[in-house]
Recover the amino acids of this structure.
């Protein structure tokens, strides 16, 4: 059952991505439910999990002092639909479904895992090719979609292309390893370079600088666990925790003097958003202003290129600053603690083979994106990362039938010390 569920997830991966990405959350939920008999009995509470639970509990408690009214569920009697609006429940659920699916993936035989890797690699490759084509023929494609009545001319299509570029930046390491794992060093090197060139080209064309930074951060994280095969994950966890704890100071320095009325591009506008959010953090840096506080900010930019747009558009475009704004130093410290504990819980990188490199790339890439984009409570983004984490566990299971030396040579950049 687990094999076929994960193969199905791999098969629909591109369809979900080009539908806007929101399908990743229900896909993760459905997969976890189907794999519940295999995964749930093997789950064990770890220390870092308790820290995550403390984070979620504190965030939920912060709703009491937030200026935004609590909205748990929306019910539409016309079509009998129910939507969970409480952010803690949505993202907390994503964590739980990911944990169940990871434990279920550990039950795969090496042969089953290899089958899943094959399907997932093909699916992610298809996504990369389509994203590249869309970036090249963007105007023609969007015009055709609008003319056919498939989507109104709202700009969502443009945003979806960029969103898929970010997803590709996060999934690229898995694609590289999945495609090159059975090839010679030379051919694997060619695939690696080709994938990175295409991903970077798409991101640069779309102006998605966050994805480029994410790719660089992923490679840096891989280098850390490669250079420190015993304590690599502990070092990486400590670095990420330090970034979270120092975010208001660092981004306060980067955004000093930023003025939304003088912004001429998205980068300058983003700096202005960060400046505004840091002002909110300064009002209560210990407890924060409460869950959803940024969505209550309705001030609009009075003049300039971005006139009439919200000065803080619902979230900070920086997950870490949003965390500080909502739950202050207490919430940020609990998150940092959870990450450090997780880093110490991880096995030594040298024992994980290429799966360890993939885990490092995912962690580094995710924190880089978190610093420049997305709502902290964007459950589909957390679900995307969760599904990639599951695929990393699948890759670890698939390695059992390969020669270790060949696996390490499958990704030359990830084996930089070789």
């Amino acid at each position: 059952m687990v094999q076929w569920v994960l193969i199905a997830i791999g098969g629909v991966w591109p369809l979900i991505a080009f539908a806007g990405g929101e399908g990743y959350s229900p896909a993760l939920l459905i997969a976890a439910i189907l794999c519940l008999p295999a995964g749930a009995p093997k789950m064990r509470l770890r220390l870092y999990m308790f820290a995550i639970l403390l984070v979620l509990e504190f965030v939920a408690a912060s709703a009491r002092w937030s200026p935004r009214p609590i909205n748990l569920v929306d019910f539409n009697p016309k079509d009998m639909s129910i939507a969970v609006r409480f952010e803690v429940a949505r993202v907390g659920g994503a964590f739980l479904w990911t944990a169940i699916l990871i434990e279920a993936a550990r039950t795969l035989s090496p042969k089953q895992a290899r089958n899943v890797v094959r399907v997932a690699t093909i699916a992610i490759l298809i996504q990369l090719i389509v994203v590249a084509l869309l970036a090249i023929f963007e105007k023609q494609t969007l015009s055709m979609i609008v003319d056919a009545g498939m989507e109104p001319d709202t700009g969502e299509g443009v945003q979806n292309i960029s969103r898929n570029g970010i997803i590709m930046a996060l999934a690229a390491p898995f694609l590289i390893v999945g495609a090159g794992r059975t090839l010679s060093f030379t051919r694997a090197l060619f695939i690696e370079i080709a994938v990175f060139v295409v991903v970077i080209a798409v991101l640069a064309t779309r102006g998605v600088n966050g994805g480029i930074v994410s790719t660089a951060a992923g490679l840096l994280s891989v280098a850390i666990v490669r250079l420190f095969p015993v304590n690599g994950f502990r070092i990486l966890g400590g670095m990420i925790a330090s970034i979270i704890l120092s975010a208001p100071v660092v981004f306060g320095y980067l955004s000093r003097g930023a003025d939304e009325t003088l912004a001429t591009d998205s980068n300058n506008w983003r700096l202005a958003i960060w400046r505004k959010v840091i002002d909110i953090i300064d009002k209560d840096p210990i407890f924060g202003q409460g869950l959803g506080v940024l969505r209550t900010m309705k001030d609009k930019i009075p003049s300039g290129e971005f006139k009439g747009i919200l000065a803080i558009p619902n979230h900070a475009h920086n997950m870490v600053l949003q965390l500080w704004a909502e739950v202050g130093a207490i919430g940020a410290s609990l998150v940092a603690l959870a990450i450090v504990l997780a880093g110490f819980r991880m096995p030594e990188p040298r024992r994980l083979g290429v799966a360890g490199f993939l885990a490092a790339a995912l962690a580094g890439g995710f924190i880089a994106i978190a610093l420049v984009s997305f709502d902290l409570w964007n459950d589909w983004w957390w679900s995307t990362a969760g599904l990639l984490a599951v695929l990393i566990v699948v890759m670890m299971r698939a390695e059992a039938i390969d020669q270790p030396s060949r696996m390490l040579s499958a990704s030359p950049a990830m084996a930089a010390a070789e």
